[in-house]
Specification:
The chain has a single domain, classed as Cupredoxins -  blue copper proteins (Immunoglobulin-like, Sandwich). By secondary structure, it is mostly beta strands. The N and C termini lie far apart (46 Å). The chain contains 1 helix and 8 strands. The longest helix is centred in the N-terminal third of the chain and has 17 residues.
Length: 116
């Protein structure tokens, strides 16, 4: 019985040590997990970001101004986000390099995603 408890504790410890509850891999993306890029106070974070192919969600967080995501080179569907102060904008990306900016703030608010 004691051995079963030890195995259970070790197994749970291993799961906790390997898990990433936010799916961000410490800022960048991980194998097929959801990756979030925060849109806040005239910046995208993180950028540049290297992610695995799959879902990326832009999430407006405490934005004092309205912003959008407009692709310089990116997916065709959905093409661009709405201009907003709150909300999310999910996209699915395949292999490649994607450049984007906020049309409200121009090149001063831009980012890059590298999908590997």
């Amino acid at each position: 019985m004691r051995l079963k408890h030890l195995a259970l504790v070790l197994g749970v410890g291993a799961l906790v040590a390997c898990s990433d509850p936010y799916g961000t891999g410490g800022g960048g993306g991980t194998g097929g997990h959801l990756t979030t890029i925060t849109v806040t106070n005239n910046r995208f974070s993180p950028t540049p970001d290297t992610v695995a192919a799959g879902s990326v969600t832009f999430s407006w967080s405490n934005a004092s101004n309205t912003h959008n995501v407009t692709w310089d080179s990116g997916p065709t569907t959905p093409a661009n986000s709405s201009t907003m102060a709150t909300g999310t904008f999910p996209v699915t990306l395949s292999l490649g390099t994607y450049h984007y900016h906020c049309t409200v703030h121009g090149a001063a608010m831009s980012g890059t995603i590298v999908v590997q």
